[in-house]
Amino acid sequence: MDIWEKLYTSALKVQNDRVISPFIEAGGVAAAILTDKGNIYVGVCIDTASALGMCAERNAIANMITNGESKIDKVVAVMEDGKVGSPCGACREYMMQLDKNSGNIEILVDFENRETVKLKELLPDWWGYNRFENQ
User: Fold this and answer.
1) Based on the structure, what is the number of domains in the chain?
2) What's the domain range around 88?
3) 91 and 76 in contact (C-beta within 8 Å)?
4) Is 1 a residue whose pLDDT tops 90?
5) Beta bridge partners of 54
6) Spatial CA neighbour of 117 closest among 75, 67, 81, 89
7) What is the C-alpha to C-alpha distance for residues 31 and 80, in angstroms, rounded to an integer?
8) Which CATH number covers residue 103?
């Protein structure tokens, strides 16, 4: 099993589309991230009636940060149909702000062919690079 399959399988384990209340649904999309320390963190999307929800990727990142890490190496997001997908704009921005090297995060965009893109390819000319200059 390669790392992409391990991440994909980790995300599938928590993906479980469910209704939490009349206002909240969760688990339609699941994500797994691999940190630079080799740990895997997972999360699911949480959709709310008031737009206060959270994407699966950001939920996985919150799990990572809660556990004392902040540097991502790889990301997999599993959509409702079982295919992988690219993070939304808010998740891309969130990841870029984590670390000066976040542009090198690999994102799986085609599971069967193991095709990836780097985050910096999805956010060319990102506005925040200069804030990392003194780190």
Assistant:
1) 1
2) 3-132
3) no
4) no
5) 46
6) 75
7) 11
8) 3.40.140.10
